[in-house]
Design brief:
alpha/beta; TIM Barrel; GI Alpha 1, domain 2-like; two-stranded antiparallel sheet; 10 strands
């Protein structure tokens, strides 16, 4: 049985249990995850999205096989037991090929999901909820079409698993996450009122998916569907967080309360208060996805450290990192990944490029000029940082150093700042 199925068995027996999913390909974010997961003896669930990692390399330049092996090696280097590492694929479908015609878009999606499962990813979120160029944009995509495309991709995943078993006879079968009302990856593009998924619509959706799977020879695969993605009223935009209101989601959560094997997967849970995260798990939203908040924290740490760097070395012979200026220049030179997300006047856009919750800056962290500036910043602060400066710019970490919890070293400071966000999710898992 898959580790996530074991978790669901416990949840259905009345135990307060769940898992959070780290949707990131950032090395610092993943190292921080492995550190926290090791400290708290919990599973580390890492998911790469369809735009981060695909058969063509995605925006990270990594194929599924490359990312899988890199993540395993990173866990090993972090001293984390890979037995407790679960790798998943998020929004696997035609997400990045919606401008193509249906045949070509789905052909690419077929290959995408095949390579993920063949590489060893075992948690597979199949997402066909988006319109493709040849769909009628004047009407919402029907559940029947979404289910039909999901079945097609699930068949490809099952084929890939059969092939993987030839290489790894004891390979764990993939478990699946489905849904037709899936929030867009990375947060809302505009501030708008969040509507909770209608409970009656969800019942209809589940029946359509159930029938589509059973009518197309996927009855066994249906047994490995562990979650459905819904909108429980949780989202964020560049400046606003929509906090979970369990009363608003009560009717929705009743739909699967008595289902023996199905839970909800909550997307865009970034920046939620820890008490809200705890309530979500208690209400059956047992898989909590987080991504932008983690690179948001990473960027916060780098900005704080750059302020310290300037105080220590400005006016000396030391070459400064100029991290913030470098990041801004790279984003302005290539605006494609932020321009549709940030609105308002130029001042508002400038603020949100640096500080916005949607954290579009994360797409630029692998750019060579940005990577070099980060490396220079870390190298410049290799020696212990004066405590008064840490109190000024990283007060949480300052207190932890005083208490002997964190080492006064730049690497440890960055990992711990990211870890502040993981702590909220770890709190949510507590009984």
């Amino acid at each position: 049985m898959h580790k996530l199925q074991e978790m669901i068995v416990k949840q259905k027996s009345g135990e307060h249990t769940g898992i959070f999913s780290c949707c990131s390909s950032n090395e610092y974010v993943l190292r921080s995850l492995f550190k926290k997961a090791k400290e708290h003896n919990i599973i580390a669930l890492v998911e790469s999205t369809a735009n981060q990692v695909d058969q063509f390399g995605g925006y990270t330049g990594q194929t599924p096989e490359v990312f899988y092996n890199w993540c395993k090696e990173l866990a090993k280097d972090s001293g984390f037991d890979e037995e407790y590492l679960v790798l998943g694929g998020d929004h696997l479908g035609p997400l990045t090929w919606t401008k193509l015609e249906e045949g070509e878009a789905l052909k690419n999606a077929d290959q995408l999901i095949y390579e993920y499962v063949l590489a060893g990813f075992t948690k597979i979120h199949i997402d066909t909820s988006m319109l493709i160029s040849t769909d009628d944009a004047s009407v919402p995509l029907s559940d029947d079409i979404i289910a039909s495309r999901t079945v097609r991709l699930c068949k490809k995943a099952e084929e890939a698993f059969e092939e993987r078993k030839k290489m790894v006879p004891k390979a764990t079968p993939p478990v699946y996450v489905i849904g037709s009302e899936v929030p867009i990856p990375g947060g809302a593009q505009e501030s708008e009122e969040m509507e909770v998924t209608d409970s009656e619509h969800l019942k209809t959706t589940l029946k359509i998916f159930h029938d589509a799977f059973h009518n197309n020879g996927l009855a066994e695969a249906w047994k490995r569907i562990i979650a459905v993605v819904v909108q429980p009223g949780v989202e964020f935009s560049e400046e606003e967080v929509f906090v979970y209101n369990r009363e608003n989601a009560k009717q929705l959560c009743e739909v699967i309360k008595d289902d023996p094997s199905l839970v909800f997967e909550g997307h865009s849970t970034d920046y939620q208060p820890k008490t809200a995260l705890h309530e979500m798990i208690a209400d059956g939203i047992c898989i909590l996805k987080v991504g932008p908040a983690l690179t948001f924290a990473f960027r916060e740490a780098l900005f704080a450290l750059e302020n310290i760097e300037k105080i220590l070395f400005e006016g000396t012979d030391v070459k400064l990192s100029e991290f913030a200026d470098t990041l801004e220049k790279v984003m302005l030179d290539n605006p494609a990944r932020w321009i549709s997300h940030y609105h308002g006047d130029e001042r508002s856009k400038k603020i949100n490029r640096k500080y916005g919750y949607s954290d579009r800056a994360r797409y630029y962290l692998n750019e060579e000029a940005v990577k070099e500036s980060i490396e220079r910043l870390v190298a410049n602060l290799e020696d212990p940082i004066p405590m008064p400066l840490l109190s000024q710019f990283m007060p949480i970490q300052y207190k932890k150093i005083q208490d002997g919890i964190v080492e006064n070293h730049v690497d440890a400071l960055i990992l711990d700042r990211i870890g502040d966000y993981y702590d909220d999710y770890i709190f949510a898992l507590e009984k």
